[in-house]
Every structure is written in structure tokens, then in C-alpha cells.
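Researcher: Here's a chain I'd like modeled. Treat it as a single chain, no partners, no ligands.
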Amino acid sequence: MSFELTMGQERAKAVLRAGLASQRLPGAYLFVGPPGVGKRFTAKQFVKAINCLSPGSDGSCDRCAHCRLVEKGEFPDLYAPEAHGGKLTKRAAADGDRMALEDILPRLHFAPVMGRYKVVILDPADGLTAEAGNMLLKTVEEPPSRTLFILVATVETSVLPTLVSRCQKVRFTPLSAEQVADFLQRQRTLAPELAATVAAASQGSIERALDLCQSRLLEQRAELLDFLLALFDSRLSERTVMSLSLLQSSKAERELLERVRAVGRMLSRDLLQASAGMDRSGWLLADRGREIERLAGQLGRQGVLQLWEVLDEFSRGVERNENPKSLLHFLGNRLRGLAAGSAA
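Model: Modeled as a single isolated chain. C-alpha cells:
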């Protein structure tokens, strides 16, 4: 049952099922992919599967004592050191309540306390400090018997290359908008229209979708769309461009950028459909259909495609935590440039 609970990720699950079927697991796996697509959840399901008292054809029973302890985070053979500030260090923080690597690694040389395997989940593995990574490498190179490491990372190139080379990679991909929307309807009881709107802006990430639900995205959607549409006006002043960024805290500015990015993706998706002559039934911003059709006609197909590129660059800047005001300046300048180019 356990792998049925993981949404999508059929290729990743196939790799793990093959390992279970062969009964010859590697010493370490690297689960790599975007945030919020099920890496950590699948790692837990895999720990259940290899330690379950009554395993089935698709993983664990999800009911036995071992499965219940794994689910609660109390299984004695499962270790998951705590990250601090996004970093996994050799030593525990003074206020930490979990063991650190220097406490865990010596214990791996003893037999499992309860299960078949001792498992260490390292998340985020791309947050391992150099000292912690080098310490871990010595154990991963010659893992103790019945020991498995699961490294969970967003960016493979940020993990120590010598560690990566000793792991079997399991790649995770963004979920489909339909899968995210279905999750939101089932788990957050969102109306289908709202679930579809959030899912389209989530980039295939459940984590991002939940963040968007908790933000003011839905109530501010009209205001944010007004802002984005105004950016296409070449007569717009810099003061107006910056009006939404004049907030007191950097956290508030970051949240604003996330919402601008989310509504920008909705707008670009609808513009692409409008430029292809598709009706409004599948649009995310159908209530603003006339304005979107007018802008699609103004930009033309090529301009709409260029908008996608601009928003991708803006999105990468958000992920790199670039200065919010600089990012909004960039977005305003590029969108005004697109509008001016289409009018030439």
C-alpha cells in the first residue's frame, strides 16, 4: 500500500520497487527533484517498506507496529538529523533535540534495534556542510551491514560530488496541475475553480501550492492582475512600478514576489491560450477575459512566448532571493519593453 500513497512519480517508484524485489539495496540513494513533489514522503514510505512486518506487493502494510512507529517518527532504527538554517552540520545545535551526524554514525556499526535496516535520512543533503559531508563520505564509502542512507536534495550539483557518485539516483519531477488540484480538493476542500487556479501557479509543487493557499494570493488576485496588466503600459512611471513593493518587512516583500510570480504564471498561461484562439472555458482568469484577449492581440504570439521567458527569469530571481525592488524594476522594464516592441 505504501507506494500507492505517493502521488505520481512512477519512475521513482519503479526504481524503489526494483530494489525491494531484488532484495539487494544499494548503500545509499539520492532522491533529487524540485521542492514539494514527494521526496521526503516517499523516503518515509520506503523506510516502512524495508522494515514492514507484513510487506505487500507494493510496499508496506502501513498497519503493523513498525509502520506505525516510522509514521510517528519513533522507529528506533530511523535517524533523521535536524537541519538548522537549511544546513546539516556535524554537531547538533545547542537548542536541538535530535542527534547529529557525529552521534548517529557510530551507532550504525551495531545491529538494528528492531527492524531489518538502519536508515539515515539526510534532508536537505544539499545543505550538508563540508565538514559534515566529508565525515559522512567515510561511512557511505564502506557502509555498515544492513544500513541505508537516503539523501534528499533539490539541486544535485550542490551535493558533494564524491557523495553523489556513491548513491543510486532517484529523480523526482514536478506533479501535473491536475494532480495538485486533486490534492487541494481532497485535503484542503478547495472548490474546483480555486484548486485549479492555485495548482496552475504551483509549478507542480504541493509545498508551494499550500504556501499559496496560506498567503493572500486568492484575495489579492484581482489587485495583482491589475498591477501586472499596468506594467505593460509604456507610459507608466517608476513610482507606480514600485508601489506594491513599498512594504515594511523583507518577509512581506518576499511573500509579495511569490504572489506576483503566481499570478504572472496564470496570466501567461491564459495569454498563450488566447493567442492560440482557445475559448475561455479552461482559463484561470476567465473573468478578465476581454483584457487578456486584448493584450494577447497586442503582443502577438511571439510576444506572448517572450513573456514566458521574462517570467521564467523573474522566477529564477525570486528563487535566488534577489533584491525584491530590483526584481520588480526588472519585471516592469521588460514588460514595458514587450508592449513598446509590439506597438512599433
